[in-house]
TrEMBL record:
CDD domains (UniProt xref): AdoMet_MTases
UniProt name for this protein: Class I SAM-dependent methyltransferase
Keywords linked to the UniProt accession: Methyltransferase, Transferase
Organism of origin: Acidisoma silvae
GO molecular function, one term: methyltransferase activity
Domain Methyltransferase type as annotated: residue spans: 61-158
GO-annotated biological processes: methylation
InterPro entries (alphabetical): Methyltransf_12, SAM-dependent_MTases_sf
């Protein structure tokens, strides 16, 4: 299912592969994020129950210049996993950049396929245990057709990491898109359109809502590719939480977890007990929709999803064999941000949300190394004079506070 706009989209991503990336930068840093961080996949998709030794068959559908592909392939390589990542994108220019980045890292666990996600039913790929699809569905003429194609190659018990645009946090974007569509119609060449876009941005009136929106910076720091993708994209649809849930429902899918869960919990933003009680009576989708409407600053929705008939059951963080793991930032670094009052401040696109931690949390965070079990940690703190009951209470409070902000998770079993 394609239309005339697809040719304009194809021309855009050949002229301005997105996001702008230089393979030489691979020697300096690995770009990480959500979705598709391996520790997130282990926990949010598979509930920290799928053994790390089991090869992961992954698809990055709409791989662009390679961020998700490079991150996941690097993570699998680092832990010696025999799994492979299939990169799929229809842009030759984007694939060249992604391949160069993989070569710079010496990655050999990636299969490269040029094509559209709409071609999946005929490509003979899969099945895949995990599918990443970021920034693609909202550019399709029929997003449900794209999602159906993805679900069709998803293995039983597998899951997806999806990203779609959200409307409230993109206030101002669509106004400028409408202006640019008049001044630089989509049927003009990408080079001509970007020139007009730059001129408009240099003279954008003070009253334009995009000037007040600080939820993204692609048009400021993302180069020509960033400006074009944000403001000149010929097809761009945003989904509210409710819209997204409805889209997932067309393929029998549902959200396993939004990133980060705390942001989508209306209790985070409602200090009034009576309002919290009202919110708690809503369905999980309506609670997330309420949080979206209250905050008004969500510019994208990032979510891990599974089939509704195959909900994830996450491992119990309180059992002795559970292995706590820091998602990315080491515990020794995270504790440096804890305030004297025991609160750890978080920012969600400029919106503050402090997390309260028990007094024992800094010591526990220092001790988490991704190897020690809960029983090991209990024994360690017993040696330091902390009783078993006190430790378990402190650990329960620490995990309950930091799991919803995606900082402390549970590691998957090694075998």
């Amino acid at each position: 299912m394609t239309d005339s706009t697809d040719a304009q989209l194809a021309a855009q991503y050949e002229a301005y592969p997105y996001p702008a990336r230089d393979p030489k930068e691979e020697a300096k840093r690995l770009i990480v994020g959500s979705p598709s961080h391996i520790r997130e996949i282990d926990y949010w998709v598979f509930g920290a129950r799928r053994p790390q030794s089991q090869p992961l068959r992954a698809l990055v559908a709409g791989g662009g210049t390679g961020d998700g592909t490079i991150m996941l392939a690097t993570h699998l390589s680092r832990r010696g996993n025999a799994g492979r990542v299939t990169y799929l994108d229809r842009s030759q220019a984007a694939m060249r950049i992604a391949k160069a980045r993989a070569e710079a890292r010496g990655l050999t666990n990636i299969d490269w396929v040029q094509g559209s996600i709409l071609d999946l039913p005929t490509l003979g790929l899969g099945p895949f245990d995990y599918i990443d699809c970021c920034g693609v569905l909202h550019h399709l003429p029929e997003p449900s057709a794209g999602l159906a194609a993805l679900e069709g190659v998803l293995a039983p018990g597998g899951g997806m990491g999806l990203m779609v645009y959200a409307p409230h946090g993109r206030t101002g974007v669509y106004m400028v898109q409408e202006a640019l569509a008049l001044l630089a119609p989509p049927d003009q060449s990408p080079a001509a359109r970007i020139e007009v876009g730059k001129r408009v941005m240099r003279h954008l009136p003070e009253s334009n809502w995009l000037r007040f929106n600080r939820n993204f910076s692609d048009h400021i720091s993302g180069g020509d590719a960033g400006l074009y993708d944000l403001l000149l994209n010929p097809r761009d649809r945003a989904f509210t939480v409710s819209d997204f849930a409805a889209l997932l429902g067309t393929a029998g899918m549902e959200v396993s977890a939004f990133m980060e869960p705390m942001r989508y919990n209306p209790a985070t933003w409602l200090p009034d007990p009576k309002l919290r009680a009202r919110a708690a009576a809503l369905s999980s989708t309506d609670q997330a929709a309420l949080a979206e409407s209250l905050t008004g600053n969500m510019s994208v929705h990032i979510a891990y999803c599974r089939r509704a008939a195959e909900p994830v059951t996450r491992a119990d963080p309180m059992v002795d064999t559970a292995v706590p793991v820091m998602r990315e930032v080491p515990g020794s670094e995270l504790v440096k941000s804890i305030l004297p009052n025991g609160q750890l401040p978080f920012l969600f696109d400029g919106l503050r949300a402090p997390v309260s931690l028990p007094p024992q949390a800094p010591a526990i965070l220092h001790a988490i190394d991704g190897e020690k079990t809960v029983a090991d940690l209990a024994a360690l703190f017993a040696e330091r004079g902390m009783g078993a009951e006190k430790f378990r209470r402190a650990w329960a409070e620490t995990f309950a506070a930091l799991e919803p902000v995606n900082r402390v998770l549970l590691a998957a079993p090694k075998d």
